[in-house]
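Example A, followed by Example B.
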Amino acid sequence: MKTEILPYSQTRSFVTVWMIELWERFGYYGMQALIVYFMVQRMGFDDGRANLVWGAAAALIYVAPAIGGWIGDQVLGTRRCMVLGAIILSLGYALMAIPSTNTWHLFSALGVIVVGNGLFKPNTANLVRKIYEGDDSKIDSAFTMYYMAVNVGSTVSMLATPWIKDYVNTTHGNELGWHAAYAFCSVGLMIGLLTLFLMRATIRHVGSVPDDKPLHMGKLAMVLAGGVVAVGVSAVILQYQSLARIFVYLAGVVVLGIFAHLIRKSEPSERAGLIAALVLTLQTVFFFIFYQQMSTSLSLFALRNVDLEFTVLGSHLWTWSPAQFQALNAIWIMVLSPVLAFMYTRAGRTGSDLSIAGKFALGFAVVAAGFFTYGFAGYFAVDGMTSSWIMIIGYGLYSLGELLVSGLGLAMVARYVPARMGGFMMGAYFVASGISQYLGGVVANLASVPQGMTDPLQTLPIYTSLFNKLGIAAVLCTLIALAVLPMMRKLTATHHAHQ
């Protein structure tokens, strides 16, 4: 039997994909750090509308990969879709950099970002899966490090874009700082594309069947035309909240229907893995409801009820703007990712690795602890303002939980789903994530502060009440995850027996 000799090592191929993901997330999270504040402070939206618009936009951004994954698998190719998606994303952020407070302009720019992310996200993740196909312990470790790329890029941008916005606004006495920050996001994507161009040879051997064929210009034109239509549809959905709600719930029904169809039509040897993937995907839906609080309720909590000065024993260390607190999530994940990746690899060698289902249960328990930390913030508040250190502790727990659940979600798809469904199922996973992010916006509105309410003593109990409820919900998710562990062990054993 002839052994295939790869032109580049797995590590070099992975680093290339890791780098483009880093720069793409640099753009996305730089925009996310500001978007709710932009709608509330610049566009004049109330909390409720801002939360739901961003929840709907996040849903669209995560639903689009279901189609993008199929286009990568069957039409243009995985590598080509990754590049095309990055180009379209840079255009979307560039549109947001144009000074305007017109809602249709904002929603159209977000529509371009939806299309770009739909092409980029599932195909980049699928390339990682293809690089390490067949090695479960390495897949868990690779996706944990891949998840770290998200947070290297997002840390820099979430610290930088609020600073750029404040600096330009203050220096020039206008509101152009918001748009300068969005331009910064666009430049990040352009750097990522340049990096990919220079390192393209390392991933030339990795991809789907269409990647190995000449580019079909007719198919490319059809994809681009479909993208233009999708931009228009996205803008309309964002403008009308009732449409957004219908779209999200319909997407949920479609995803469940597709899962049921694939399970019913699959080979008996594939069925156990698909059922396991469905159970874990449903758990991920609940996680992303918690996740969406970072850019909605937690973000507005930082604006109204967090002391922005970091102090130790009365000594001032530094001051952050409210938007920069979101970077704590990424900073913690950068600290924790290498530790977890090392632990997974070591446990894999000794045969003592915790199952993905077990990691999900542990992750929900840690998320619960994080939200209870925020909930207890009211007990330590002075005149309605709580310490910045509460945010550091809460984000640390929340981020560890995120790594155990969301960080392994893509690894779960890679492990349990047949290769021929890889791109599409990566997309279906993102659809489930998107649905729950819209639901996260709905949940955030439980802490929607009426316009004109500025007294921290009035707003603090509104937020802490929501955070305590979220902590209780995360405890319930932990109990459910523990209850399904025996079933998951049985499904996993059946799946491995048929491989």
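Example B, a separate protein, is given below in the same form.
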Amino acid sequence: MTKNILIINANPKRSSFCQHLADTYEREAREQNNTQRVNLSALQFNPSLDCGYDDEQPLEPDLQVFQQQIAWADHVVIVSPIWWGSLPAKFKGLFDRSFLPGFAFKYQGYTPVPLLTDKTSRIILTMDAPPQSLQDQAASVIAQLDVFTLQFSGFQPSAVSLFGSVVAASESEKSAWVNEIKQLGRAAK
């Protein structure tokens, strides 16, 4: 079955291992699926939700397009580094500004109701910290991104891939990671 797949390179750097992984996934997935791509480094928007939900903050054109891409997607693949045990600030800002009430969820009384249902996702995380701390650092990122953002908005629980330490990895280790991403892309997982 053909899927609509949105691939998000969530590294704000223009060139990174995350970009290489996102490129690899996209190249394989587009053979059998419809793909769209977001590179965080190319987006222009204020990442701060300045008034919370008290006032409407107009969406910049890049955020309007991002919302359209999220709505279009059946499957969202996020490739992000872990920085300081968290997501890059601009990436968090992308969700703060675009996953808004009326788009990602609505309230019925005080109860949030998800609006982005019937969607799946894969989270691919990289980090430079020692491999023995990968699980510990990733746990808070996965909770924030998967449970409290994607699932809160209606996505099914994410599949997760963890890669690290990137800075200490040999070329053969990186090659094995890239091959894993190729397989995931081919399978649209």
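On Example B: The domain at 4-187 is CATH 3.40.50.360 (Rossmann fold).
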